[in-house]
């Protein structure tokens, strides 16, 4: 099929590339000229494992193209995907300005039989509003479908190629048939293609993210409780997870969830609820607990150093909001960095992929180390924010030699407290007795 993918960010680029890989002819469009020029030269502007190879392969086979020219991409497309950003407004509602701009740009060039497919996460009613706007802009009915995306950064290719389910919100059999055909290669026999109304599809995306966020805030609150009551959250997680009604996933305690989606989607769903007169008590609590959890390492630092942080040198391992990505949007590490700088600390940071993005934000306010051990040189303590594989099995003796004081604040529970004691570290983690 001929496809236009509007927006070549994390979702658009991954989706477009994977769709090309199953034989479709895909043109990715972006308003960011630099991004498109780099892609045309085979350079992938984001770090996502496996993506660069797949982009280069499909571009070379002539079925993946990049352009800033919306008209060129849309004119021949049977499916026009919208995968532009839907960030948060100040009040928590979703900012749909990128979507509206994209709708205006595609409208004059749509084929009469094209289906516009909304992949961006957008509030209930957006699909209908896009239909209304396209009717006004084109003077005819345009087919608009919702197709929320459930991929995770760091595992995006695999998630796209092997989805647990495909959800589509459609109003016409034509849209359903086209999408069913498009996704047939991805659906193993036991994985469903679920059709529903666009409103239900829009809600499904928010409800999924809100439930996953709820699990994380819940386990973080329980971890904090474990610390006070001298329990161990790892044992508790094992104790509850074997109950198949509960399970193990998304119940890892930490420094709070970050990323471009959970925080904004929980707030946007709360905003939707308020607008229809419902008080979103659960969603507000999930957000509040998460905002609080982003300060958990700072609170432990303050306790360890009796509130005297000024003049300390603190090393940070892990800046991306999760491993296997360079994405730092709403990353808990940024909250910690801001607090440490405000308290008068010197901050030395390392991340395998996100250093460049952090440097663009903080410039010379931080010391950027190209290896984990270099970040420790002369530091009074280490804080771990992201569970990159590189941090899981470090040379503890060398770490002790590099650190000025052998103190670790581990926000991802990477090590065993007993092992750390044996190495002579003062070791703080989440929800476990030191
Ligand atoms: P992103 O910021 O990485 O990418 C969006 C891209 O769209 C940018 O490159 C931007 O330049 C481009 N753009 C904006 N307006 C445009 C226009 N008029 N024409 C062409 N390009 C335009 O965002 P993302 O992370 O890919 O998220 C996109 C959407 O997908 C959001 O609604 C998000 O909630 C949703 N989503 C994201 C993920 C994820 O893991 N990042 C997963 C599922 C769903
Ligand atoms: C999340 C969802 O998992 C995807 O299904 C969804 O498509 C996507 O949001 C989206 O809508 O954008 P993503 O944000 O890429 O994906 O990454 P996750 O693996 O979900 O992690 C999100 C945050 O939660 C990270 O900061 C991570 O460290 C944290 N987390 C996750 C925990 O603290 N504990 C856990 O047990 C799991």
Characterization of this structure:
- Residues 315-417 form the UDP-glucose/GDP-mannose dehydrogenase C-terminal domain.
- This is UDP-glucose 6-dehydrogenase.
- It comes from Anatilimnocola aggregata.
- The active site is at residue 261.
- This protein folds into three domains: 2-196, NAD(P)-binding Rossmann-like Domain (Rossmann fold, 3-Layer(aba) Sandwich), CATH 3.40.50.720; 206-292, N-(1-d-carboxylethyl)-l-norvaline Dehydrogenase, domain 2, CATH 1.10.1040; 294-428, Rossmann fold.
- It has 18 helices and 14 strands.
- It has helices spanning 10-21, 33-40, 51-60, 70-74, 97-106, 126-138, 156-161, 173-183, 198-229, 233-241, 262-275, 281-293, 296-304, 332-342, 355-362, 372-376, 396-402, 417-423; strands at 2-6, 25-29, 64-67, 79-82, 115-118, 143-146, 166-169, 193-196, 313-317, 346-350, 367-368, 381-384, 407-410, 426-428.
- The longest helix is centred in the middle third of the chain and has 32 residues, at 198-229.
- It binds nicotinamide-adenine-dinucleotide and uridine-5'-diphosphate-glucuronic acid.
């Amino acid at each position: 099929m001929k496809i236009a993918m509007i927006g070549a960010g994390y979702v658009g680029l991954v989706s477009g590339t994977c769709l090309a890989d199953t034989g479709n002819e895909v043109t990715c469009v972006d308003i960011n000229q630099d991004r498109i020029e780099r892609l045309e030269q085979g350079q992938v502007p984001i770090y996502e494992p496996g993506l660069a190879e797949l982009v280069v392969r499909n571009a070379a086979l002539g079925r993946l193209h990049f352009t800033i020219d919306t008209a060129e991409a849309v004119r021949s497309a049977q499916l026009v995907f919208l995968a532009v950003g839907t960030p948060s407004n100040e009040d928590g509602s979703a900012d749909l300005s990128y979507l509206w701009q994209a709708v205006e740009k595609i409208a004059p060039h749509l084929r009469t039989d094209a289906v516009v497919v909304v992949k961006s996460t957008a509030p209930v009613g957006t699909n209908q509003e896009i239909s209304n706007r396209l009717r006004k802009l084109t003077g005819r009915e345009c087919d608009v479908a919702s197709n929320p995306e459930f991929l995770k950064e760091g595992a995006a290719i695999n998630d796209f190629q092997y989805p647990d389910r495909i959800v589509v919100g459609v109003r016409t059999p034509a849209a359903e048939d086209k999408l069913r055909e498009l996704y047939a290669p991805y659906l193993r026999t036991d994985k469903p293609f679920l059709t529903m109304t666009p409103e239900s599809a829009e809600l499904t995306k928010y409800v999924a993210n809100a439930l996953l966020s709820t699990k994380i805030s819940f386990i973080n609150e329980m971890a904090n409780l474990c610390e006070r009551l001298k329990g161990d959250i790892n044992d508790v997680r094992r104790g509850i997870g074997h109950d198949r009604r509960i399970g193990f996933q998304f119940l890892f305690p930490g420094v709070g969830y970050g990323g471009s989606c959970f925080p904004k989607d929980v707030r946007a769903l709360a905003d939707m609820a308020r607008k229809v007169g419902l008080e979103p008590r659960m969603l507000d609590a999930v957000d509040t607990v998460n905002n609080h959890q982003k300060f958990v390492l700072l609170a432990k630092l303050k306790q360890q150093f009796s509130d005297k942080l000024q003049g300390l040198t603190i090393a940070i391992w892990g800046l991306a909001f999760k491993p296997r990505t360079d994405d730092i949007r709403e990353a808990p590490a940024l909250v910690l960095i801001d607090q440490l700088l405000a308290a008068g600390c010197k901050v030395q940071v390392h991340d395998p992929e996100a250093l460049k993005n952090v440097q663009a934000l903080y410039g010379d306010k931080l010391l950027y180390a190209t290896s984990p051990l270099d970040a420790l040189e002369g530091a009074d303590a280490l804080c771990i924010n992201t569970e990159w594989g590189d941090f899981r099995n470090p040379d503890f003796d060398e770490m002790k030699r590099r650190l000025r004081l052998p103190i670790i604040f581990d926000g991802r529970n990477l090590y065993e407290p007993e092992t750390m004691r044996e190495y002579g570290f003062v070791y703080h983690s989440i929800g476990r007795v030191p």
